[in-house]
């Protein structure tokens, strides 16, 4: 099932090229979409038949006529994986004179939830004299509270998957700071529930800047897969329904600037794009 937020945080189910407004079927509160989403996630097996029934009598709209929004608007945390593809690990180490960039050494890091934006919105770059990069990533949302779980158990805790861009400003500051500016975490276009994607690590992921294909990889190239990322994260902190883990980017990371359109696509999940501009007070 493809679960989307649209038009001022209504709840939608996407089928083919239409979105069905199923908000009323689950007592959805559009004024508090994160709380409503977490309630839906925690009781999804109970709500799923009601959602399926609602598809037969709900209003629907062409996707081209609605405004999609970030599918997880305000998680308690976003955990991200650095250098989690072999080709990107080699790329980074070559760029920085064989520095020991490995995910085993660096571990996961946090991004600010306030950096989230949705499809069609605008990434606002804070500096005119520094490089800002795109990073294409597969992300997933936690389905139930998790602490000290194993990778073998982790699949039971993944509610669904979506595409995410981890925007980064280059510099000497800590990674979390450089990746947490407002608008630096575009995500979407919707959540695809895990029952529809048996193995996410065979999907193809691509990212374009304007018409230039910058990143193109199969997720089988990942080092820590989704379940390993979840295991490692749960060893450090308690994960809650609605929390996000994003799994890192492959080679091909490159600069973006004002006027660019950045588009990401992941097989069986979907695609979305964002625009790029400078902040009004960019320095």
TrEMBL record:
Q: What is this protein called?
A: 5-carboxymethyl-2-hydroxymuconate isomerase
Which species is this record about? Paenibacillus naphthalenovorans
Q: Give the record's family classification.
A: Belongs to the FAH family.
The record's keywords, sorted A to Z, are: Isomerase, Metal-binding
Q: Which residues form the Fumarylacetoacetase-like C-terminal domain?
A: 77-276
- Family matches, as InterPro entries: FAH (IPR051121), Fumarylacetoacetase-like_C (IPR011234), Fumarylacetoacetase_C_sf (IPR036663)
Lineage, highest ranks first: Bacteria, Bacillati, Bacillota, Bacilli, Bacillales
Q: State the superkingdom.
A: Bacteria
Isomerase in keyword set: yes
Instruction: Cite the Pfam families for this sequence.
Output: FAA_hydrolase
Protein's GO biological process: small molecule metabolic process
Q: Which PANTHER family match?
A: FUMARYLACETOACETATE HYDROLASE DOMAIN-CONTAINING PROTEIN 2A, FUMARYLACETOACETATE HYDROLASE DOMAIN-CONTAINING PROTEIN 2A-RELATED
The record's annotation in Gene3D superfamilies points to:
Fumarylacetoacetase-like, C-terminal domain
GO-annotated molecular function: isomerase activity; metal ion binding
């Amino acid at each position: 099932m493809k679960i989307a937020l649209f038009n001022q945080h209504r709840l939608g189910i996407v089928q083919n090229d239409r979105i069905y407004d199923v908000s009323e079927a689950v007592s959805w509160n559009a004024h508090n979409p994160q709380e409503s989403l977490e309630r839906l996630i925690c009781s999804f097996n109970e709500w799923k038949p009601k959602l399926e029934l609602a598809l037969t009598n709900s209003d629907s709209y062409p996707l081209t006529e609605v405004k999609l929004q970030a599918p997880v608007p305000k998680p308690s945390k976003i955990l991200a994986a650095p250098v989690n593809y072999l080709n990107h690990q080699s790329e980074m180490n070559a760029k920085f004179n064989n520095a020991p960039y490995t995910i085993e050494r660096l571990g996961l890091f946090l991004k600010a939830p306030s950096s989230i934006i949705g499809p069609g919105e605008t990434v606002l770059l804070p500096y005119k004299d520094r490089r800002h990069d795109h990073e294409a990533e597969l992300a997933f949302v936690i389905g139930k509270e998790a602490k000290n779980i194993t990778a073998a158990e982790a699949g039971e805790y993944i509610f669904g998957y979506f595409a995410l861009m981890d925007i980064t400003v280059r510099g000497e500051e800590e990674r979390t700071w450089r990746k947490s500016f407002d608008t630096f975490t575009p995500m979407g276009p919707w959540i695809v529930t895990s029952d529809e994607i048996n193995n996410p690590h065979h999907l193809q992921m691509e990212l374009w800047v304007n018409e230039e294909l910058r990143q193109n990889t199969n997720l089988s190239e990942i080092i820590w897969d989704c379940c390993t990322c979840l295991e490692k994260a749960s060893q450090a902190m308690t994960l809650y329904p609605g929390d996000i883990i994003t799994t890192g980017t492959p080679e091909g990371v490159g600069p973006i600037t004002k006027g660019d359109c950045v588009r990401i696509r992941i097989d069986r999940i979907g695609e979305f794009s964002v625009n790029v501009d400078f902040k009004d007070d960019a320095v």
